[in-house]
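Usage

Read records sequentially. Each one opens with the input sequence:
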Amino acid sequence: MLCPKCRYQRKATDQTPAWQCPACGVAYAKAGVYPPRPIIPASQRARVRNTYGQRRGIDHLLSFLVVLSISSFALALWLKDQLPAPTHLVPELTQAPVQTATHHPPFVFNYHSEGYLIEPVAEYELWGLVVTHNNITGITDIMHTKDSVDIKDICVIWGGNIGNSDYQKISFSSGDFICYFQYPAGVSFAFDEISNNHLLSDDEVVRETIRQTHIGDQIHLRGMLVNYSWQSKPGWVRRTSTTRQDTGNGACEVVFVKEFEVLKATNQPWHHLYRISGWMIALSLLLKIGSFLLPTR
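and closes with the structure output:
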């Protein structure tokens, strides 16, 4: 460094600060000259570039995973509840429900520390395509909880309602205890070939199969149409419908299920992707947040 004021050539042995002339004491900056920037060794520069490149690569990878997970979740959400085409339906679904007299006496069964009095009304067997169902753990169902004796309410169609693809043009949805449907003009639909079924069972294997049933699945069940009441609430009774011709309040079938099977599942890959992508969204977001909190070496 050459001092612009006194022309003193700075030596390596000088003890004054790097910004000050050892001879005249002037600050190089004030005299119009700045001290040279420190020289960073080539090995250190490479290490800094390498660390920055690694962090940038990880950040890009995590951003890609977040976008991929959200996109997969949205796609699966859209496709997981699509109804199958008529060509994919099993022949059993053309049958009407079978209802016969029962001689089974009333009985009591316990579920989640609550006793329920069951009054059998008729023997019942049903084949159907699940077009909608409620979700007892969802925030929109305020009448059910995970302890509800109604495991799931499934709305199914059969017979002439699956004879053509018109059912794919119908909008189905479930309330807490009700099956709703809406369709445009020109759609062929029979009101006596659809039913909303409140399902109960004392068999945990049957209950778990019911819980895992999805929209679009083709099912078969066998059991009894029943009225039931809580032992802890005398005078309160939920009654079953015994005809497929009724509508409105009280038109739902209450079924105490003994056998339940999914004849043909639909949209399973999309349900798997829906669950996996949901977890991946949470995981990738946590990793991305964590990457900002990790110290840089």
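Summary fields computed downstream for this record:
- Helices lie at 42-79, 204-211, 268-293.
- The chain has a mean pLDDT of 86.
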